[in-house]
Amino acid sequence: MILPAKFELCFFFFFFASSSPFSAKEETKTELILLFSKMFKAIAHFGFKKSSKPFKDYYDGWFKTLKNVLLPHLRHAMSSSATSGPILLASHVEVMHRHFLKYYEALDLAATNDVSQVLYPDWRNPFEKPFLWVGDLHPYLFTNLLRSFIGDSESEIDSDIFDKLQNWHVVMAWKSPSRKLTTGVDQIECGLRLMVPALAARARDAQAKFVEKMAVEWGKCEGRKQEMKGVVGESAAAEMEELVGVFVDANRLRRSVLSDILNVTDVNQAAVFLEALAQFLVGFRNRELLSQFDKCSLEL
């Protein structure tokens, strides 16, 4: 079940939007979180720490490694696993997993330096932004992607094609999923239903306090620009710390879900899942699709 080099990104937009457990009300809350975070950029000059290197630069390098090195190597290991054995495939799965973990570690570090550049990443393109939640991929995306393979487990494979396949055990990875797998996925989703609303509420409350604090201090210092810089910056710093905490906890949840998925899948299932996740990210930056999107925007 090795996926084609190009994902049908439009299908994924429909699939993840329609299958997300989020209600319209919850989506509105998320949009408000992103809108409020724009304010943080406007007050960055009040003395908050700034990152010496924009996170965009790190992400560009991380993405190139994913696209040009790790994804091709994983695909090669999947296609040759019948001859090379499961150990080589497992090593590539582990390398890909660690690549994602390093990304979230770097994201945490960037947040402690300047949460505004990651909480509302304006360097993301129009395809990426709808899938962001508290600054990065929504954890439901991971479970929805996993569910898509489980739901496809009943599809038939042509016997003539099957006889010619060398990587048949990879193709058959999602046939008749085990009870351990389905139970594990249920538990992961149960945890998400508890954690996601709680984190969304924390983010909403933290931003409400932030805006309120800023408004009060701004009013006190009206007409005194020099005093305003120090007072407003000091008052807002405490509220910003809570937002950093929310962001870091959201990343911890993303890392946890990703690791939990790999714990309940076998090496072939994990390889197929990570290949799909990596290709999903690569598809966001497909130049042809972005060009078509820009043309549609101009027509509107």
Search tags:
sequence-specific DNA binding, 300 residues, 13 helices, two-stranded antiparallel sheet, Seed_Dev/Stress_Resp_Reg, TGA_domain, DOG1 domain-containing protein
Question: What's the SSE blueprint?
Answer:
Layout: H1 9-19, H2 24-42, H3 55-79, H4 81-84, H5 86-113, H6 116-119, E1 132-133, E2 136-137, H7 139-151, H8 159-164, H9 168-171, H10 179-220, H11 225-264, H12 267-284, H13 287-299
Antiparallel strand pairs: 1-2
Task: Tell me the fraction of residues in β-strands, as a range.
Answer: under 5%
| CA distance, first residue to last residue | 38 Å
Numbering strands along the chain, what is their spatial order in the largest sheet?
1-2
N to C succession of SSEs? HHHHHHEEHHHHHHH
Q: Name the structural class.
A: mainly alpha
**Form type:** elongated
Low-confidence stretches: 1-39, 42-48, 157-165
Assembly level: single chain
Number of domains: 1
Largest sheet entry: 2 strands, antiparallel
Let me know the average pLDDT: 77
Helix content: over 70%
Walk me through this protein's architecture.
This protein is an all-alpha fold. It has one domain. It is 76% helix and 1% strand. It has 13 helices and 2 strands; from the N terminus they run H-H-H-H-H-H-E-E-H-H-H-H-H-H-H. It has a two-stranded antiparallel sheet with strand order 1-2. Helix 7 packs parallel to helix 11 (225-264). It starts with 8 loop residues before the first helix and ends with a helix. InterPro entries: Seed_Dev/Stress_Resp_Reg (IPR051886), TGA_domain (IPR025422).
